[in-house]
Please model this.
Amino acid sequence: MEIEFSAHEFRDDEKFHLARYKYQGDESSGWKIYRKGELFETLGKGYVLLKTCYCGICSTDIARANLPFKLPQITGHELVASLDERFYVVEINASHKARGVKDATCFYCNNDMDIHCQERLTLGIDRLPGGFSPYVLAPRNSLIPIPSNISTVNASITEPFAAAYHAVTTSVRKEHRSVAVVGPRRLGSLLLLALKLYREKWKINFTITAVIRNEAMKDFCIKVGADNVVGVSEIIDQKYDVVFDTTGSESGFLQSLRIAGNILHIKSTSGKPVEGLTRLTEMVIDELSLASVTGSKRNILYKSIEDDSVSEVAVDESIPQVLLEDLTKCFPEKIFSRLNFLGDFGESRGYNKQYDLAIASNLHKLNHVVRNCDGKTLMRAKSKLFLYKEGVDGGVSVSGELEEALFTRDVQLHTSRCGSFKHALKIMSENDLYFEEFSRTFISEIRDIEELDEAFEEAKSDRKKIKIVMRH
Ligand SMILES: [Zn+2]
Ligand SMILES: [Zn+2]
Model:
């Protein structure tokens, strides 16, 4: 099979340009992608060719130039596509499992964590052409039929809604009484909706507060699910059990950190460092969490190590021997490895595997275990990071607001990336009327793909345009 077409590709000048593409191959033998007549990418087997119908513009598309993936790239990952006159939403992680390819050595695909498959391409984000192309190659197992009571254009919200719902289930617990969403716009309004539906489903009693900078967003936030809306300046001393930061900016992160009582959840991948966390975007991509441990306050660490998902623990060389000895005594069945966190994670002993938990003695080392200078990681996806400080007379000396929140207020940082599309569609379908009304507020415009440049600039700057969906 062979198909040739022009597509809007995103380049490092942060603009779209039309380029000629050709896909050649088939599902059983694999595909070759040609760009401007030259071989651009070779795909394995398990991809099917679909015609794109709709694709939403997302903040990840806007931040694309800051992300650790190469350009040019045909972006767009919130898509609806058709095959043989049927319409599907498409899961974006092209893992072995999604492609229907068996690989006994892939830990993630064999442990239900296939979105973290190390050999995955990501549709519209990493190498695999996305939904701003008229045709996509999608992993065969990633096509999910759209329920009859959801319209094809509204189904383009599935990807970001799935991610929002997953973020909520990751961080909100029965005991939580107050949840805040800071800076709601695209992701934030989906979080407000997800929180409302989650609260109804599980009968949890928490308030949903939207924290806004722009007064004009007030009605919108109430409409999509917030119980109340407050301005950034009004909440200086207020604390919320769980805070979702959706601003993608350092000032928004700090604002969120200040009002976080228990958990600060980050889901956006802005590619920018915040508060000494230079690998925050990679932490989100790998869904890592962060908490603190001191000489005397160890309960969160010990609880985390107890978890069945933890078997290998990496301990920074500078962590005191007494702590390591106690850990080894308390958890004889777990494996603790003392490592130089600034090492090159190369061939030397202890670096060839990935760890489920790491204890670092400073932020620099913590960043390094997430990604070292060669882009390698020491951590398994969904693993837990701990920052250690020696307690001095029951207290620790902290520098910066992040350490202050982690050590003096025991705030934990959670992250998450993709959610289950099937689960999301089920919830959307069960709440179809509510979802229909949400979509009317949320989707500001449907534009023709030829207007992508203009629509993209508006999505970036116009605060009234929440979600712009492109139509092919
Ligand atoms: Zn997105
Ligand atoms: Zn895999």
Remarks:
- Residues 58, 60, 77-78, 159-160 surround zinc ion (ligand 1) (CB under 6 Å).
- The chain has a mean pLDDT of 93.
- Residues 163-415 form a domain with the Rossmann fold fold (CATH 3.40.50.720).
- The chain has two domains: 2-145, 163-415.
